[in-house]
Amino acid sequence: MAFTMHSHSGQFCPGHAKDDLEAVIQHAISLGYTTMGLTEHMPRTQREDLYPEELDDPEASLAVLFPRHEAYLAEAQRLQAKYASQIALLIGFEGEWLRPAYAPLITQLAAHPSIDYFIGSLHHVNAIPIDYDAAYYARALASVVPPSPQSSDGNGEERMYERYYDEQYSMLQSLNPRVVGHFDLIRLLSTNPNHNIRAWPGVWERVRRNLHYVASYGGWLECNSSALRKGLAEPYPCRVIAEEWLRMGGKFTLSDDSHGIAQLGTNYARALDFLSGLGVTSVWTLQRDANPHPHPQSHQYSQPGEVKKATLTEREVPIEDVRAVVGKW
């Protein structure tokens, strides 16, 4: 079986992704996916948290985010029922940890009865995007270490990494996400994405602290293949972090972090080879009980408290079972 625990569509993630959600699901079925986690981005609440493509009319951009999330939940449940005989759809969202003030909102969104899980993600340092483009990354870096000719820390990226993992730790402690998204996203636009972070004692100490915390509550790290399509040599997380995670007994799930049809399953063969090279023989996903939600025609999707959440069980999937599907693509 093949699966992903992290995906997006252009319908509910405009500007970042492509294609309607139903078309994405249909393509996943055609590839042989048997489980798919739907994880559109959660709504943001502040004007300063908008992306450049949303700033032409910021008030309108903010106003549409929560209705779009509600529409996503309704459509996800409709498709979950429609394609139940062909694919197991898990409904989730990607949490946006811009600052601690977002914790109550993420908790509230996660409580909705249709939500099976959410991904705990960090795309920002000091509320400035670190994966959007080089200019934003430079702004985030300057917010941590203002440029100074007297600086002995080069470009200051060591401090930047420390800040990233401290903010990640705050997110982990507040939310205990079942899936931790792209654990080391900070390296995407860094000067040297292949830098051995064990050479930075303060960074490595924070990485180990965060991994230990995730292991303590039974969370999973995703092996996220999107790093490979973005030009990095290894998936998220990189080898040294993955090795440390495995030493702690940690489990991996598998994600393509697709933003449309074209990216479904991209570089899965390389991601599986990476995991096999670490000695990983299985990845993990979730299995849900029979759909407890109202009938699709009842229009009761967005009424928390009316139905119970689905029961979820962890499912171990041998890597070779995934490889058997990927090999047909």
UniProtKB/TrEMBL annotation:
Domain PHP, chain residue ranges per copy: 5-226
SUPFAM superfamilies in UniProt: PHP domain-like
E.C. designation(s): 3.1.3.15
GO biological process, alphabetically ordered: L-histidine biosynthetic process
Enzyme class: hydrolase
Cellular component annotations (GO), alphabetically ordered: cytoplasm
Pfam families: PHP
Record flagged with keyword Cell membrane: no
Keywords assigned by UniProt, alphabetized: Amino-acid biosynthesis, Histidine biosynthesis, Hydrolase
Molecular function per GO: histidinol-phosphatase activity
Domain of life: Eukaryota
PANTHER family (UniProt xref): HISTIDINOL PHOSPHATASE-RELATED, HISTIDINOL-PHOSPHATASE
Similarity-based family: Belongs to the PHP hydrolase family. HisK subfamily.
Protein name: Histidinol-phosphatase
Species of origin: Anthostomella pinea
